[in-house]
Amino acid sequence: MSAAPQTTRPAPTPAPAAPSATVRRGTRHPALVVVAILLTAASLRPLLTAVGPLTTDIQHATGLPGSVVGLLTTIPLAVFALASSQVNRLARRHGIEAVLVGGMLVLTAGGLLRWLPGAVPLFAGTTLLAFGLVVGNVLLPGIVRRDFPHRVGAMTSLYTTVMSVGAGVAAGAAVPLAHDAGLGWRGTLNVWVVVAVLALVAWLPLMRERHVPDASAAARPRRLWTSPLAWQVTVFFGLHSMLFYVCSAWLPSMLGARGLSPATAGTLGAAYMIAGAVASLVVPVVANRRPDQRMVVAVIVAGELVGALGVLVAGGPLLVASVTLLGLAGGAGFALSFLLFAVRAGDGQTAAQLSGMAQGVGYALSATGPLLFGLLHDALGGWTGPIVGLVVIPLVVATVGFGAARAAHV
User: Fold this and answer.
1) Which Pfam families does this one have (predicted)?
2) CB neighbours of residue 370 within 10 Å
3) What are the residues facing 25 on neighbouring strands?
């Protein structure tokens, strides 16, 4: 009996520019590609993170219960889980740039639909724009790996930081824009569509290039689903995505149970997101300097574990430091996940396919997090048990993270 084929191979050091999975004909415009990537990244979070601070306004305007309004956040995660693995089929057929243009069009249409009165356009528009968001989520790592093979770390730092900053700015500005600026909750939710329109304009001239599909590309998704390394990257991303959405939904309530005032708990919740953005700027650059990122994973896991333990038992300044450390480590893990999509792949097409697999499964995993932690709170009658759950997540991350970070390619 012959030996089973290996699913990974050692990564070269230093990694040469990998061949693209498509033959590109035309002239690339690196500066325009960078602008298009950053505008796309800036459009991927605000239309979602602006919802949370406006939940009460939406309830009063629509008469819907909070559980139904909460679907405005849950629906996009479900779409991400269902559609992520399909985006690359469109990209192989039509080209990455063309699909990104289509994604920004769908995102814009969904945002405009939410401007119409009534609950049905609100939920239909949210569902539609989620399909546009998933296109950018999946394809940006492939674009970076294909067009910037020697600057993967720097480009990943830039666009993941823009994603994090966009999320924080949209959440922090939601109430002032709605109340003080007079935009109302509908205008505030959808003002960020302007960024998607700008991204669309940036991708249009890049779409003119012709792409000849690589005949071997169609077989790669099947191989990815049988690769232990691909699954390790997938679970690593899913757990960090779960940690982000659990903390976004419940961290202020957890801190309130520790005796903090609602205002202070809300401020620390914002500090968690800001710390994550800072980590996103630094970690991919540092991690990309070596083909093996296991030391970075060790630091991330230690930071998450200490931060979660601090949220459980610390008080005063130590509690503030613990929340900040948890945000730094969680943001670092999230940013490292996107770097791994690129550096664990041998070319841009494989990076996009790995991104699609990891985000499809990962967002399905992360979507369960806020629900499970809420159910755990209800079952135990308090937040101590769920905070212990925050301690457990880094321990699980460690079981897959060191495999995902080893110097190998899927």
Assistant:
1) MFS_1
2) 20
3) 210
Asked if 74 and 127 count as a contact pair (C-beta separation under 8 A), the reply is no
Residue entry with tokens 């993967």: 152
CB atoms within 10 A of CB 154: 13
Nearest to 305 by CA among 232, 365, 239: 239
**Nearest to 152, CA basis, from 144, 161, 140, 160:** 144
> Do the domains spanning 27-213 and 215-410 agree at the CATH topology level?
yes
Say how far apart CA 189 and CA 46 lie, in whole Å: 8
Tell me the torsion sign for CA atoms 75, 81, 87, 89: negative
**How does strand 9-10 pair with strand 22-25?**
unpaired
pLDDT tens for 129-179 read: 999 999 998 899 888 888 898 888 889 889 988 988 888 788 778 888 888
Which DSSP category does 9 fall into? Answer: E
pLDDT value at residue 376: 87
Instruction: Give the DSSP H or E segment for 409.
Output: strand 408-409
In this prediction the pTM is 0.77
Residues whose CB is less than 8 angstroms from the CB of residue 68 and which lie 6 or more positions away in sequence, other chains included: none
What CATH number is given for 27-213 in this structure?
Answer: 1.20.1250.20
Query: Domain extents for the chain?
Result: 27-213, 215-410
Q: Which helix (H) or strand (E) holds 379?
A: helix 348-380
Q: Which two tokens stand for residue 251?
A: 């961290």
Return the sign of the alpha-carbon dihedral for residues 138, 135, 111, 38.
Answer: positive
CB-based contacts of 238, cutoff 8 Å, min separation 6: 358, 361, 362, 363, 364, 365, 366
For domain 215-410, is the CATH number 3.40.50.620?
no
